[in-house]
Amino acid sequence: MTIDELYPDAAPHQINTPAKANERGEDAAVSQTIQRALPRNIEAEQGLLGAILIDNRTLERIADIVKADHFFFPAHQKIFQAIQKLNDRGQEASAVTLKGYFENDDSLSAVGGSEYLNDLAESVITVINAVDYANIIYELFIRRELIQIGEGVVNQSFDQNLESSASDIVETAEGKLFELSEDGVSGGSFVTMRDAVREAVELAEKAFKSDSHISGVPTRLDDLDNLLGGLHSSDLLILAGRPSMGKTALATTLAFNAAKAFAESGGKEGAITGMFSLEMSSDQLATRILSGQARIPGHLIRKGQLKEDDFKAFVQASHVLSQVPLYIDDTPALSISAVRSRCRRLKRQHGLGLIVVDYLQLLRGSGSRQSSENRVLEVSEITRGLKALAKELNVPVLALSQLSRAVEQREDKRPQLSDLRESGSIEQDADVVMFVYREEYYLERTKPNEEETEKMLQWQDRMNSIHNVAECIIAKQRHGPIGTAQLFFNPNFTLFESLHRD
After folding, report:
1. For residue 432, what pLDDT is reported?
2. Model confidence over 235-247: pLDDT tens digits?
3. Which one of 58, 138, 286, 461 has the minimum C-beta count within 10 Å?
């Protein structure tokens, strides 16, 4: 009896495909069945397991390549799992030490019981080919998973219903393909100090030679660049603030400045930028940017109240914007897996150097939102996913976040780390946490009565000193100092710029 006969899963795999329409144009809903055996290589699986049983050190060489689930036959999966458990305990894994685990195991008795372990070990001539066997096993596992994903796409595409659209099927397939690409060979390993130092020197040299003298993506806001040194690759940056503080305006400014620097420097500085706007539409963001570049108040653009000179400046600004590599996705309620797949696609098609998400709490995780506890876990999943995305694509990720109402209860309304809403994981996972704060917003709501002359004068002096001044408070930074960057906020154009007191 062969193993193919022992394991029904190894039998030829049925793939249902739609039959071609006949010449009379009749409905082609009848499916035809194609008999194909799923990809597998029993000899490679036996050879690898035998090599490990002969020399357990082989496991160290292939541990990053294959997992138990990558084996096709259930018995081989169980043998590999048992070998790993013994190895983790510091015990020798051999046909003798494994015998007790499989004496009453039906899956192993079907292929000869514990004697099968002896056969595996005795059939091995050399352990040199173990890595080759592991690569073959992993390759065939990927092929089997691709077949399963492909069948799922076909079945979902034929099953037309109101619950899922074609784009949902595409997003699901992309998510599964991404998860599959992360499985198995991770590509991660130890890096020598020599290589790490060389990379650090290259970053320092890049900063030294650049006009801005920063190694990261420039924000073109002087105080902020001085504190951060630009936005650095693989960093997760959180920009938080209360409503009306200008979170979106600042994020849009940073995204546009980075993309514009890339266009003007021919790719030497700045970054191709992808921005996920879950709250505002792409045309609203474009109007904001056009307003700032053309120096025309946004409300005049929306009302169409433009003079001839204004319209010329508007057209000229639109021409500049069309050359800037800023990509905006305004799809609402995106999941973190959808963000990940779209960023991977953008980097593959156009390149990608900066990701901006507006804002964090509007993203969805993989679970439901049935309770506040689940919501905290969901936000934790989202922040971990954004940090993982930053590391995987080696780009900075800037995510906006809301703050709790606790800020409003304090006399000093400058935000603190404890004000981050819904999850402590935001503070934990972030490399940089920034708060945008405008004292003018709060102070103008405390205007004293006209009769109180002294208080009114003090209020006016303070208002004059902070007029159009915003603070970007760096409350956490893994790679540098904390502090406050002062910015100029122009409410007419909803634009942040460097602040020059003179």
Report:
1. 92
2. 999 999 888 888 8
3. 461
CA distance 55 to 449: 87
Q: Is the dihedral of CA 344, 345, 348, 351 positive or negative?
A: negative
Distance between CA atoms of residues 436 and 401, nearest Å: 11
Q: Parallel, antiparallel, or unpaired for β 12-18 and 483-490?
A: unpaired
Task: State whether the Cα torsion 340-345-348-350 is positive or negative.
Answer: negative
CA distance 262 to 271: 5
What are the structure tokens assigned to 84, written together?
Answer: 């790993």
pTM (global) more than 0.85: no
**Domain containing 389: what range?**
206-437+468-498
For 145-150, the CB contacts below 8 A with 24+ separation are: 145/180, 146/180, 147/13, 147/15, 147/38, 147/39, 149/173, 149/176, 149/177, 149/180
Q: For the chain, first and last CA: distance in Å?
A: 90
- Strand 432-437 and strand 236-240: the pairing is parallel
Residue listed under structure tokens 């439901």? 368
Task: With respect to residue 445, please indicate whether it lies within any of the assigned structural domains.
Answer: no
Domain count within the chain: 2
Q: Which of 411, 407, 409 is nearest to 475 (CA)?
A: 407
Q: Which of 284, 320, 290, 319 is nearest to 306 (CA)?
A: 290
Peptide bond into 359 cis (omega under 30): yes
Last residue of a domain, one of 166, 182, 198: 182
Rounded Cα–Cα distance for residues 258 and 271 (Å): 5
Indicate the angle between helix axes 74-88 and 95-102, nearest 10 degrees. Answer: 120
Confidence of residue 493 (pLDDT cuts 50, 70, 90): confident
Question: What SS3 state is found at 223?
Answer: helix
Q: What DSSP character marks residue 363?
A: S
pLDDT computed for residue 182 by the predictor = 59
Instruction: Give the model confidence (pLDDT) of 205-233 as tens digits.
Output: 766 666 666 778 888 888 898 898 889 99
State how far the Cα of 363 lies from the Cα of 202, in Å rounded to an integer: 36
The answer to whether residue 448 sits within a structural domain is: no
The pLDDT score that the predictor gives to residue 354 is 94
Answer whether 140's CB lies under 8 Å from 41's CB: yes
CA angle 246-241-422, nearest 5°? 140
Residue 239 CA to residue 433 CA, distance in Å, equals 6
Q: Is residue 277 within 8 Å of residue 328, measured between CB atoms?
A: yes
Assigned token pair, 109: 């008795």
Q: What pLDDT was estimated at residue 20?
A: 46
User: 326 and 219, same structural domain?
Assistant: yes
Q: H or E segment at 213?
A: none
Q: What is the DSSP letter of 226?
A: H
Q: What is the C-alpha separation between 325 and 272, in angstroms, rounded? A: 5
Look up the CATH number of the domain holding residue 216. 3.40.50.300
